């Protein structure tokens, strides 16, 4: 949206007319990832100070929706998929296939621009990690996490998520 080029990145700083014009002038792509996988990645990257995954999850639950880190906040609270009409939703674990399609739709040569992605290996690794990490959690933590991420689980097709059970 050419008339509103600014360093400001938050839509909330603009009025409704400006927001509508900006969003209408861009192709909007949303990258989503299973919330449990996001928690595992955050823990493994050392973003929590907890010695165990279970205590890290308790930190997340105790921080709540409003005080939590962007690394583990529910996606619907960050990207507002109910308010913003995204043109594409790209699922982590299917990046090669979906990015190829997205580049093709944009008229770009998909094959030469995509890095080598091994989606099946990523999915297998996260499945194994999820099983290990999920087994460390108490029944109460599992229930609380499912509740914490309930809107993400409802908004996106994370059918294989441990949190949707």
Spell out the key features of this protein.
165 residues; mainly alpha; two-stranded parallel sheet; transmembrane; EC 2.8.2.-; glycoprotein; transmembrane helix; membrane
Q: How would you describe what is shown here?
A:
With 165 residues, the chain is mainly α. The protein has one domain. Helices cover 53% and strands 5% of the residues. It contains nine helices and two strands, in the order H-E-H-H-H-E-H-H-H-H-H. It has helices at 16-24, 35-44, 53-67, 75-79, 95-105, 110-113, 119-135, 139-148, 150-155; strands at residues 29-32, 88-91. Strands 1-2 form a two-stranded parallel sheet. Helix 3 runs parallel beside helix 8. Its main location: Golgi. It is found in: Golgi apparatus membrane. This is Carbohydrate sulfotransferase. It is an enzyme of class 2 (transferase). One of its GO terms (biological process) is carbohydrate biosynthetic process.
How would the global form be characterised? globular
Count of all domains: 1
Fraction of residues in β-strands? under 5%
Largest sheet, strands/sense/barrel: 2 strands, parallel
Query: Would you list the SSEs in sequence order as H and E?
Result: HEHHHEHHHHH
Oligomeric nature of the chains: single chain
Question: For the terminal residues, how far apart are their CA atoms?
Answer: 42 Å
Computed structural class: mainly alpha
Protein name: Carbohydrate sulfotransferase
Organism: Nicator chloris
GO cellular component, one term: Golgi membrane
Keywords: Carbohydrate metabolism, Glycoprotein, Golgi apparatus, Membrane, Signal-anchor, Transferase, Transmembrane, Transmembrane helix
């Amino acid at each position: 949206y050419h008339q509103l080029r600014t360093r400001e990145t938050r839509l909330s700083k603009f009025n409704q007319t400006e927001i509508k014009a900006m969003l209408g002038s861009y192709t909007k792509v949303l990258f989503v990832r299973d919330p449990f996988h996001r928690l595992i990645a955050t823990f493994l990257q050392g973003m929590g100070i907890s010695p165990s995954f279970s205590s890290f999850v308790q930190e997340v639950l105790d921080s709540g929706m409003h005080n939590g880190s962007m690394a583990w906040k529910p996606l619907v609270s960050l990207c507002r998929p109910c308010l913003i009409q995204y043109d594409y939703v790209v699922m982590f674990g299917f990046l090669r296939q979906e990015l190829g399609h997205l580049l093709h739709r944009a008229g770009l040569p998909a094959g030469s621009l995509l890095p080598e992605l091994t989606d099946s290996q990523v999915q297998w690794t996260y499945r194994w990690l999820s099983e290990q990490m999920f087994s460390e959690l108490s029944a109460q933590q599992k229930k609380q996490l499912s509740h914490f991420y309930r809107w993400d689980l409802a908004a996106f097709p994370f059918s294989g998520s441990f949190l949707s059970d």
